[in-house]
Amino acid sequence: MRSIIWISRLSVFRWLAALLCAALLWPAAQAQAQEAKTLRIGFQKYGTLTIVRALGDLDKRLAAQGITVKWTEFPAGPQLLEGLNVGSIDFGTVGEAPPVFAQAAGAALVYVGNEPPSPTSEAILVPKDSPIKSVADLKGKKVALNKGSNVHYLLVKQLERAGVPYADVNVAYLTPADARAAFERGSVDAWVIWDPFQAAAEKQLGARVLADGAGVVKNYQFFLAARPYEKAHPDVIQIVLEEIRKGDLWARDHRAEAVALLQPVLGLDKAVVELAAERLAYGVQPITREVLQEQQQVADAFHALKLIPKPLNVFDAAPSGLK
Fold it and tell me: Which of 18, 118, 155, 243 has the fewest Cβ atoms within 10 Å of its own Cβ atom?
Protein backbone atom coordinates (compact mmCIF):
# COMPACT_ATOMS: atom_id res chain seq x y z
CA MET A 1 0.00 0.00 0.00
CA ARG A 2 2.81 2.37 0.97
CA SER A 3 4.53 1.58 -2.36
CA ILE A 4 1.39 2.57 -4.26
CA ILE A 5 1.11 5.83 -2.31
CA TRP A 6 4.82 6.57 -2.90
CA ILE A 7 4.47 5.93 -6.62
CA SER A 8 1.42 8.21 -6.73
CA ARG A 9 3.26 10.96 -4.91
CA LEU A 10 6.25 10.55 -7.21
CA SER A 11 3.96 10.89 -10.23
CA VAL A 12 2.45 14.04 -8.77
CA PHE A 13 5.91 15.50 -8.15
CA ARG A 14 6.96 14.71 -11.71
CA TRP A 15 3.77 16.24 -13.08
CA LEU A 16 4.32 19.40 -11.02
CA ALA A 17 7.96 19.59 -12.13
CA ALA A 18 6.96 19.27 -15.77
CA LEU A 19 4.28 21.93 -15.29
CA LEU A 20 6.79 24.27 -13.66
CA CYS A 21 9.32 23.69 -16.44
CA ALA A 22 6.71 24.42 -19.09
CA ALA A 23 5.73 27.61 -17.27
CA LEU A 24 9.35 28.75 -17.16
CA LEU A 25 9.96 27.96 -20.83
CA TRP A 26 6.71 29.49 -22.11
CA PRO A 27 7.97 33.12 -22.20
CA ALA A 28 11.11 32.03 -24.07
CA ALA A 29 9.03 30.04 -26.55
CA GLN A 30 6.75 33.03 -27.04
CA ALA A 31 9.76 35.31 -27.60
CA GLN A 32 11.27 32.92 -30.14
CA ALA A 33 7.96 32.66 -31.98
CA GLN A 34 7.65 36.44 -32.01
CA GLU A 35 11.21 36.79 -33.28
CA ALA A 36 10.45 34.48 -36.17
CA LYS A 37 7.56 36.74 -37.21
CA THR A 38 9.74 39.84 -37.63
CA LEU A 39 13.01 40.52 -39.41
CA ARG A 40 14.57 43.83 -38.38
CA ILE A 41 16.93 45.20 -41.03
CA GLY A 42 19.28 48.13 -40.51
CA PHE A 43 20.18 50.13 -43.60
CA GLN A 44 21.98 53.29 -44.59
CA LYS A 45 20.62 55.79 -47.04
CA TYR A 46 22.37 54.23 -50.00
CA GLY A 47 23.52 50.94 -51.50
CA THR A 48 21.85 47.66 -52.31
CA LEU A 49 19.63 47.44 -49.24
CA THR A 50 18.13 50.81 -50.13
CA ILE A 51 17.30 49.42 -53.58
CA VAL A 52 15.90 46.18 -52.11
CA ARG A 53 13.71 48.20 -49.74
CA ALA A 54 12.44 50.39 -52.57
CA LEU A 55 11.69 47.40 -54.83
CA GLY A 56 9.65 45.75 -52.08
CA ASP A 57 10.15 42.16 -53.26
CA LEU A 58 11.77 40.99 -50.02
CA ASP A 59 8.88 42.32 -47.93
CA LYS A 60 6.38 40.53 -50.16
CA ARG A 61 8.28 37.24 -50.16
CA LEU A 62 8.63 37.14 -46.38
CA ALA A 63 5.06 38.36 -45.85
CA ALA A 64 3.91 35.21 -47.66
CA GLN A 65 5.62 33.27 -44.85
CA GLY A 66 4.05 35.41 -42.12
CA ILE A 67 7.21 37.45 -41.52
CA THR A 68 7.13 41.24 -41.36
CA VAL A 69 10.23 43.23 -42.33
CA LYS A 70 10.97 46.25 -40.15
CA TRP A 71 13.41 48.70 -41.74
CA THR A 72 15.49 51.09 -39.60
CA GLU A 73 17.76 53.75 -41.09
CA PHE A 74 21.17 54.52 -39.53
CA PRO A 75 23.54 57.40 -40.37
CA ALA A 76 26.59 55.12 -40.68
CA GLY A 77 27.93 51.60 -40.16
CA PRO A 78 29.15 51.92 -36.56
CA GLN A 79 25.75 53.13 -35.39
CA LEU A 80 24.06 50.34 -37.35
CA LEU A 81 26.17 47.65 -35.73
CA GLU A 82 25.62 49.19 -32.32
CA GLY A 83 21.95 48.58 -33.02
CA LEU A 84 22.77 44.96 -33.86
CA ASN A 85 24.87 44.67 -30.69
CA VAL A 86 22.08 45.86 -28.40
CA GLY A 87 19.50 43.68 -30.15
CA SER A 88 17.43 46.29 -31.98
CA ILE A 89 18.15 44.84 -35.46
CA ASP A 90 18.88 41.38 -36.86
CA PHE A 91 20.59 42.16 -40.17
CA GLY A 92 22.44 44.99 -41.89
CA THR A 93 25.19 46.07 -44.26
CA VAL A 94 28.36 48.05 -43.51
CA GLY A 95 31.89 48.58 -44.81
CA GLU A 96 35.18 47.03 -43.70
CA ALA A 97 35.89 48.74 -40.40
CA PRO A 98 32.55 48.71 -38.50
CA PRO A 99 32.46 44.91 -37.98
CA VAL A 100 35.94 45.06 -36.46
CA PHE A 101 34.95 47.73 -33.94
CA ALA A 102 31.65 45.96 -33.21
CA GLN A 103 33.33 42.60 -32.67
CA ALA A 104 35.87 44.28 -30.39
CA ALA A 105 32.92 45.64 -28.38
CA GLY A 106 31.56 42.11 -27.96
CA ALA A 107 28.85 42.09 -30.62
CA ALA A 108 27.58 38.59 -31.46
CA LEU A 109 27.64 39.03 -35.22
CA VAL A 110 28.32 36.81 -38.21
CA TYR A 111 29.48 37.68 -41.72
CA VAL A 112 26.96 36.22 -44.18
CA GLY A 113 27.96 37.82 -47.50
CA ASN A 114 29.80 40.63 -49.25
CA GLU A 115 29.80 42.67 -52.41
CA PRO A 116 32.90 42.92 -54.63
CA PRO A 117 35.51 45.60 -53.85
CA SER A 118 34.49 49.20 -54.55
CA PRO A 119 37.67 51.19 -53.80
CA THR A 120 36.65 54.42 -55.55
CA SER A 121 33.39 54.70 -53.58
CA GLU A 122 35.29 56.34 -50.72
CA ALA A 123 37.87 59.12 -50.74
CA ILE A 124 39.79 61.79 -48.90
CA LEU A 125 38.31 65.09 -50.07
CA VAL A 126 39.73 68.61 -49.82
CA PRO A 127 38.16 71.94 -50.84
CA LYS A 128 38.67 72.78 -54.51
CA ASP A 129 41.04 75.67 -53.69
CA SER A 130 42.94 73.82 -50.94
CA PRO A 131 46.75 74.08 -50.97
CA ILE A 132 46.88 70.39 -49.95
CA LYS A 133 48.16 68.46 -52.96
CA SER A 134 49.09 65.06 -51.54
CA VAL A 135 48.30 62.78 -48.60
CA ALA A 136 51.68 63.71 -47.13
CA ASP A 137 50.40 67.29 -46.85
CA LEU A 138 47.83 66.14 -44.29
CA LYS A 139 50.51 66.11 -41.60
CA GLY A 140 49.42 68.53 -38.89
CA LYS A 141 46.04 69.09 -40.56
CA LYS A 142 42.53 68.50 -39.25
CA VAL A 143 40.72 65.62 -40.96
CA ALA A 144 37.07 64.73 -40.37
CA LEU A 145 35.68 61.20 -40.53
CA ASN A 146 33.10 58.94 -38.94
CA LYS A 147 34.96 56.88 -36.33
CA GLY A 148 34.99 53.17 -37.05
CA SER A 149 33.62 53.50 -40.59
CA ASN A 150 35.23 52.07 -43.73
CA VAL A 151 36.84 55.47 -44.40
CA HIS A 152 38.70 55.21 -41.09
CA TYR A 153 40.72 52.35 -42.52
CA LEU A 154 41.20 54.26 -45.79
CA LEU A 155 42.85 57.13 -43.90
CA VAL A 156 45.04 54.73 -41.91
CA LYS A 157 46.34 53.01 -45.04
CA GLN A 158 46.79 56.19 -47.09
CA LEU A 159 48.81 57.81 -44.29
CA GLU A 160 50.87 54.65 -43.95
CA ARG A 161 51.58 54.71 -47.69
CA ALA A 162 52.58 58.38 -47.51
CA GLY A 163 54.87 57.80 -44.52
CA VAL A 164 52.82 60.01 -42.21
CA PRO A 165 52.25 58.69 -38.66
CA TYR A 166 48.58 58.51 -37.79
CA ALA A 167 49.28 60.50 -34.61
CA ASP A 168 50.57 63.41 -36.73
CA VAL A 169 47.09 64.08 -38.11
CA ASN A 170 44.39 65.79 -36.07
CA VAL A 171 41.43 63.45 -36.60
CA ALA A 172 38.00 64.88 -35.83
CA TYR A 173 35.33 62.21 -35.36
CA LEU A 174 32.14 63.55 -36.94
CA THR A 175 29.03 62.00 -38.48
CA PRO A 176 28.60 62.60 -42.22
CA ALA A 177 26.14 65.47 -41.70
CA ASP A 178 28.33 67.23 -39.14
CA ALA A 179 31.46 66.57 -41.18
CA ARG A 180 29.95 68.11 -44.29
CA ALA A 181 28.95 71.22 -42.32
CA ALA A 182 32.49 71.50 -40.93
CA PHE A 183 33.95 70.95 -44.40
CA GLU A 184 31.77 73.71 -45.88
CA ARG A 185 32.69 76.11 -43.05
CA GLY A 186 36.37 75.40 -43.56
CA SER A 187 36.81 74.24 -39.97
CA VAL A 188 38.45 71.01 -41.18
CA ASP A 189 41.15 70.68 -43.84
CA ALA A 190 39.95 67.39 -45.29
CA TRP A 191 37.04 65.00 -45.11
CA VAL A 192 37.23 61.23 -45.52
CA ILE A 193 33.85 60.05 -46.74
CA TRP A 194 31.94 57.51 -48.83
CA ASP A 195 29.23 57.69 -51.48
CA PRO A 196 26.72 59.23 -51.89
CA PHE A 197 28.09 61.91 -49.55
CA GLN A 198 31.34 61.83 -51.51
CA ALA A 199 29.57 62.32 -54.84
CA ALA A 200 27.40 65.10 -53.36
CA ALA A 201 30.46 66.98 -52.11
CA GLU A 202 32.14 66.64 -55.51
CA LYS A 203 29.11 67.81 -57.48
CA GLN A 204 27.66 70.39 -55.09
CA LEU A 205 30.77 71.82 -53.43
CA GLY A 206 33.39 71.19 -56.09
CA ALA A 207 35.36 69.12 -53.58
CA ARG A 208 38.56 67.62 -54.95
CA VAL A 209 39.52 63.96 -54.50
CA LEU A 210 42.93 63.91 -52.84
CA ALA A 211 43.03 60.11 -52.81
CA ASP A 212 40.55 57.26 -52.97
CA GLY A 213 40.91 53.58 -52.14
CA ALA A 214 42.23 52.41 -55.51
CA GLY A 215 45.31 50.25 -55.00
CA VAL A 216 45.21 50.77 -51.24
CA VAL A 217 42.02 49.28 -49.76
CA LYS A 218 39.30 47.01 -51.11
CA ASN A 219 36.30 48.75 -49.52
CA TYR A 220 34.09 45.69 -49.29
CA GLN A 221 30.46 46.03 -48.31
CA PHE A 222 29.55 43.28 -45.85
CA PHE A 223 26.20 41.80 -44.97
CA LEU A 224 26.03 40.77 -41.33
CA ALA A 225 23.48 39.13 -39.07
CA ALA A 226 23.08 38.84 -35.34
CA ARG A 227 24.43 35.37 -34.63
CA PRO A 228 21.44 34.28 -32.49
CA TYR A 229 19.05 35.21 -35.30
CA GLU A 230 21.18 33.61 -38.00
CA LYS A 231 21.46 30.43 -35.96
CA ALA A 232 17.70 30.29 -35.30
CA HIS A 233 16.54 31.35 -38.79
CA PRO A 234 19.16 30.48 -41.45
CA ASP A 235 16.34 30.02 -43.98
CA VAL A 236 15.26 33.66 -43.54
CA ILE A 237 18.83 34.89 -43.94
CA GLN A 238 19.14 32.85 -47.13
CA ILE A 239 16.00 34.46 -48.54
CA VAL A 240 17.37 37.91 -47.70
CA LEU A 241 20.64 37.19 -49.50
CA GLU A 242 18.76 35.87 -52.53
CA GLU A 243 16.67 39.03 -52.75
CA ILE A 244 19.73 41.23 -52.25
CA ARG A 245 21.44 39.40 -55.12
CA LYS A 246 18.39 39.97 -57.32
CA GLY A 247 18.26 43.65 -56.39
CA ASP A 248 21.98 44.04 -57.00
CA LEU A 249 21.81 42.50 -60.48
CA TRP A 250 18.68 44.49 -61.34
CA ALA A 251 20.47 47.74 -60.43
CA ARG A 252 23.51 46.71 -62.49
CA ASP A 253 21.41 45.97 -65.57
CA HIS A 254 18.95 48.87 -65.13
CA ARG A 255 21.21 51.73 -64.11
CA ALA A 256 18.85 54.53 -65.18
CA GLU A 257 15.88 52.95 -63.41
CA ALA A 258 17.97 52.39 -60.28
CA VAL A 259 19.04 56.04 -60.24
CA ALA A 260 15.40 57.09 -60.64
CA LEU A 261 14.45 54.77 -57.79
CA LEU A 262 17.17 56.07 -55.48
CA GLN A 263 16.83 59.76 -56.25
CA PRO A 264 13.71 60.52 -54.21
CA VAL A 265 14.92 58.25 -51.39
CA LEU A 266 18.26 60.05 -51.16
CA GLY A 267 16.90 63.50 -51.89
CA LEU A 268 19.90 64.21 -54.12
CA ASP A 269 20.33 65.58 -57.64
CA LYS A 270 20.31 63.08 -60.49
CA ALA A 271 23.93 63.86 -61.37
CA VAL A 272 25.02 63.05 -57.80
CA VAL A 273 23.21 59.71 -57.74
CA GLU A 274 24.54 58.81 -61.21
CA LEU A 275 28.13 59.47 -60.13
CA ALA A 276 27.74 57.35 -57.01
CA ALA A 277 26.03 54.54 -58.96
CA GLU A 278 28.92 54.43 -61.44
CA ARG A 279 31.32 53.59 -58.61
CA LEU A 280 29.24 50.83 -57.03
CA ALA A 281 30.28 47.19 -57.26
CA TYR A 282 27.46 44.75 -57.98
CA GLY A 283 26.95 41.10 -57.16
CA VAL A 284 26.61 39.56 -53.70
CA GLN A 285 29.11 36.81 -52.94
CA PRO A 286 29.39 34.24 -50.15
CA ILE A 287 32.03 34.95 -47.53
CA THR A 288 35.38 33.29 -48.20
CA ARG A 289 38.46 32.68 -46.08
CA GLU A 290 40.42 35.05 -48.32
CA VAL A 291 38.01 37.93 -47.65
CA LEU A 292 38.06 37.30 -43.90
CA GLN A 293 41.86 37.17 -43.96
CA GLU A 294 41.77 40.67 -45.45
CA GLN A 295 39.40 41.67 -42.66
CA GLN A 296 41.96 40.32 -40.21
CA GLN A 297 44.46 42.81 -41.63
CA VAL A 298 41.98 45.60 -40.90
CA ALA A 299 41.61 44.40 -37.32
CA ASP A 300 45.39 44.10 -36.86
CA ALA A 301 45.91 47.65 -38.18
CA PHE A 302 43.40 49.13 -35.75
CA HIS A 303 44.88 47.19 -32.86
CA ALA A 304 48.39 48.37 -33.73
CA LEU A 305 47.11 51.96 -33.47
CA LYS A 306 45.36 51.11 -30.18
CA LEU A 307 42.01 52.03 -31.73
CA ILE A 308 40.70 48.69 -30.49
CA PRO A 309 41.87 47.51 -27.04
CA LYS A 310 43.06 43.97 -27.75
CA PRO A 311 43.91 41.60 -30.61
CA LEU A 312 40.88 40.34 -32.47
CA ASN A 313 40.25 37.07 -34.29
CA VAL A 314 37.93 37.97 -37.15
CA PHE A 315 37.21 34.28 -37.78
CA ASP A 316 35.25 34.20 -34.52
CA ALA A 317 32.56 36.00 -36.54
CA ALA A 318 32.84 33.66 -39.55
CA PRO A 319 29.97 31.50 -40.78
CA SER A 320 30.04 28.03 -39.25
CA GLY A 321 31.55 26.39 -42.34
CA LEU A 322 34.59 28.70 -42.36
CA LYS A 323 35.62 28.51 -38.71
Answer: 18
